Each structure stands twice: as structure tokens, then as C-alpha cells.
Amino acid sequence: MDEMPTKEKTNYIHDATKAGLNVIPMVGGALASVFETVFSAPIDKRKEEWLKRLAKTVDELCNTVDGLTPEKLSNSPEFISMYLQASNIAIRTHSEEKLKALNAAVKNSVLVESFDESKKMIFLRVIDQMTPLHFKILHFLSFPEVYIQELDRQQPPNQSTHWGDLRNVWDELFKDIRSSNHLIDIAIMDLKTWGLVHVGKFHEASLHSSSTSFGKEFLKFINDET
């Protein structure tokens, strides 16, 4: 017997589950409604929103790269693998930071030729594990001078502040989570484990960039302005 196509199989399971809930006495109809509202509709909406975002990116790529067409991209095994991996992650998150990083990753998989396929796939795996806090801390530790300059611009005229410790800069800028919060050091240790920074605790960071060469490549890969 022939294998049922994946998409048809998914729809079959969905319809069968809904039908099964409908036949449960007394509460079946209510359960089916919950199933449709809580599970099916949001997933479909996420898929649609992600595909619209990705379609716009593909259109921009084809307008930017000479000779590139949607047909050529559809015949590129590496691009299809990147797109499918990124889509799998995108549908499982509501984080705008992560969605932006995934979209940029798909785009830069075409634009940045210096990264081989293995590195690109590792980057996607790292994105999958990151939270908005990881993204915020990575950027902060990689470009501390940008944040220091922002604080200096906020100082009264003819007044300068010696920030001394990078944690002072963080606490001045981000009131929602203090540098003493244990989640900060947990996130920094994660970043070090992934090879993105060379410090494992906040107090080890200096007023200069703490990102590794791998971390700089990662940031380039998730930068939509590459």
C-alpha cells in the first residue's frame, strides 16, 4: 500500500481527532471546539504569518541578487533545508526576536557565502535554544560601547560618568531585570557554552566586547541588514 503524503496524513489525523472528540457523549462538541480554537487555529495562523514573512524575504533576495529567481531557490537543496529547519523553529515560538533572527538566517544563507552548511545549521540550532534574554545579553556584551555611548548622550552637558563596571551600564539601561538576577549569569553561561562569548559570569565582562569570533559570525548571520 502506498504511503499517505505527509500533508494529507496530518490533515487526516486532525480530522480524525476532531471527529473522535465529537462523538464523546455530553462534552464531545465542546471538546472539539476547544481543540479547534486552542490548537488548530493558532498553529495555522503562525504558519501563515511566517510564510508571508518568508515570501517577502525571498522576493527581496531575488530583487537583490543578480540572476536569482524563486525557481532557482526551490531547486537548491541547501536553501530548502535551511527554510524547513527555520520554519520548524518559527512555528514553535512567538518571540519576535527569534522570528527576526530566523528570517535573517534564511536570507543570509543565500547572501553570506563564507559560511558552510554545517555552520549555518549549527547557528539555527543555537537560535532555537535562545530566549529574548539571550539575544539581549549577547548584543549587550558584544557591543558595550554602543550602550555606553547611549548613556553618555543622556548625561547633562559638560558632565561625564565613569561607569567602571559593565553591570552599572546594564542596570542604568534595563530596569526590568537587574544585573544581580541569577538568570543573567545563567544566560551568559549558555552563551559561553555555545561559543558566542568568552565570559561565563557578568562580573567577568569588561567595557570592551566579550564576543568570540564565532559569536561575531553568529551576529552577522542573524543581522537582517547584512
Percent helix range: 55-70%
- Helical region count? 11
Q: What order do the SSEs take from the amino end to the carboxyl end, as H and E?
A: HHHHHHHHHHH
Number of strands: 0
* Whole-number count of domains: 2
- How far is the N terminus from the C terminus? 49 Å
Question: In terms of structural class, how would the helical and strand content be classed?
Answer: mainly alpha
Concise account of the structure shown:
This protein has 226 residues and is mainly alpha-helical. The chain has 11 helices and no strands. It has 2 domains: 36-129, no CATH class; 131-226, no CATH class.
Word description of this protein:
This protein is mainly alpha-helical and 226 residues long. The chain has two domains: 36-129, no CATH class; 131-226, no CATH class. Helix content is 67%, strand content 0%. It has eleven helices and no strands. α8 (144-153) packs across α9. The longest helix has 37 residues, at 28-64. Residues 9-21 and 23-28 have low confidence and may be disordered.
List the helices and strands and how they pair.
Blueprint: H1 6-22, H2 28-64, H3 70-74, H4 77-90, H5 96-111, H6 117-129, H7 132-142, H8 144-153, H9 166-173, H10 182-193, H11 213-221
Question: Can you give keywords for this protein?
Answer:
single chain; mainly alpha; 2 domains; 11 helices; 67% helix; globular
